[in-house]
Specification:
Strand order of the largest sheet: 9-3-2-13-19-18
Strand content: 15-25%
Number of helices: 9
CATH architecture of the largest domain: 3-Layer(bba) Sandwich
CATH topology of the largest domain: FAD/NAD(P)-binding domain
Order of helices and strands: EEHEEHEHEHEEHEEEEEHEEEHEEEHH
CATH class of the largest domain: Alpha Beta
Structural class: alpha/beta
Bound molecules: flavin-adenine dinucleotide
Length: about 375
């Protein structure tokens, strides 16, 4: 069987689904193809921050993109809730990056000052807070917290509710979602693409590769490059408790249901998500208890590891094929944060048929080995 649509999106994680929803609601008939449970899926194992203050040091275009996404998030959350009745749990009260030594605080202050300089006229609002200023905003902090950086832009959401809301909204807008539909091959010509998936041949004048780590193998089939690799992160989750954390921090947040999540480790572990590293879990738990001593009273009820989708410089890759206009890639390691941008800013660019010049710094051609291979 063969189907023709306006767009094919490969990858039904947070990135692909946000883009597919953005395309479908703007009138492009879209098929969303997803490999299924055998794939590595960052979207189902992440921490849930909608986070701005650590994004874009030395890369102000990434800071602007992230800020644009954080600003687009409330509209997206309202739209999804109105269309599907599913709340994404978005809460953007600002956020803290806690520092547990004078040295950490000094380095953090230097980083924030540099981010503000690099932001130029775009601006970057932040404050460095002392222990007592942190305590005013965050009751129950430990004596080890020397201070923190604060920005008004940060927040968090439920990543699983977001994923479900995006999928539901996509289908209700008329989109076709096909699970267990891995893409292994395809044909490419300008504005003319086809792939075999789920026992069917799909044709479209646009294709968006948003298959997370799967993009590395898919992109070359369509004249693109996606040099992404896995970076493992581990997460600990406590039993539920009463609301105790009024705002998220970079590594600790309380969910709408009351659990405290502790996260943000980074490890090179290949594609291994079966094992966890006790030393890393211990270090994460220790830092959490130094930050908020009351966490020691809570039982850990779940722990897991999952794989981030990382480019060599840690920045997103958004690209369009020079040889095959109509083919795009999208990869990032902050698919929750960037959901607003993907649905409301990137999708309209893809509808328009090309990425504008301001997106050029996100191209994979910024990597020398990609330029050399072209
Ligand atoms: C521990 C951890 C903590 C994180 N914390 C945060 C956070 O706090 N905030 C934040 O913004 N981000 C966070 N992230 C990152 C975020 O989870 C990812 O950026 C996001 O989930 C990436 O989404 P994706 O759709 O690109 O990839 P994935 O979720 O991996 O989805 C890719 C999809 O593509 C499909 N696929 C793969 N290959 C193929 C193929 N050949 N054919 C068809 N389908 C295919 C798979 O089935 C999968 O569903 C975290 C990640 C980790 C691991």
């Amino acid at each position: 069987m063969s189907r023709t649509q306006d767009a094919i999106v490969v990858g039904g994680g947070l990135v692909g689904t946000a883009i597919a929803y953005g395309l479908q609601k703007r009138g492009l008939s879209t098929v969303l193809l997803d490999e299924g449970d055998v794939a590595h899926r960052a979207s189902r194992g992440n921490f849930g921050l909608v986070w701005v203050q650590t994004k874009g040091l030395g890369a102000p275009h990434y800071q602007r993109w992230t800020r644009g996404s954080a600003a687009a998030w409330p509209g997206l959350a309202e739209d999804l809730s109105a269309r599907t009745g599913i709340g994404t749990g978005l809460h953007q009260p600002g956020g803290l990056h806690l520092c547990l030594s004078e040295d950490e605080l000094e380095r953090r202050a230097a980083t924030m000052a540099r981010m503000q300089r690099e932001a130029g006229n775009f601006g970057f609002e932040y404050r460095m807070l002392t222990h007592s200023e942190v305590a005013e905003r965050m009751p129950g902090i430990g004596r080890s917290v020397v201070g923190a950086s604060w920005t008004p832009y940060d927040g968090h959401a439920s990543p699983l509710h977001l994923l479900r809301a995006l999928h539901t909204a996509f289908r209700e807008a008329g989109g076709l979602y096909l699970p267990n539909a891995g893409v292994a091959e395809g044909t490419a010509a300008p504005h003319d693409f086809s792939v075999e998936a789920g026992g069917q041949r799909h044709h479209a004048p646009r294709i968006v590769l948003a298959a997370g780590l799967g993009n590395a193998a898919l992109a070359p089939l369509f004249g693109l490059a996606a040099p992404v690799r896995p970076e493992r992160g581990q997460i600990l989750v406590t039993e539920r408790t009463r609301p105790l954390l009024p705002m998220p921090t970079t590594t600790i947040r309380q969910t709408g249901e009351g659990s405290v999540m502790i996260g943000d480790s980074k490890e090179e572990a290949g594609f291994d998500t079966q094992t966890q590293t006790p030393e890393i879990m211990r270090a994460m738990a220790r830092r959490a208890v130094l930050s908020f001593p009351w966490i020691a009273e809570l039982n850990i009820v779940r722990a897991w590891s999952a794989l981030r989708v990382m480019a060599p410089d840690g920045l997103p890759i958004y690209d369009q094929a020079e040889r095959f206009p109509g083919a795009f890639t999208a990869n990032c390691h902050s698919g929750v944060t960037l959901a607003g941008a993907h649905a409301e800013i990137l999708a309209p660019m893809i509808v328009a048929g090309e990425l504008p010049a301001e997106m050029a710094p996100f191209s994979a051609r910024r990597f020398e080995h990609v330029r050399n291979a072209a």
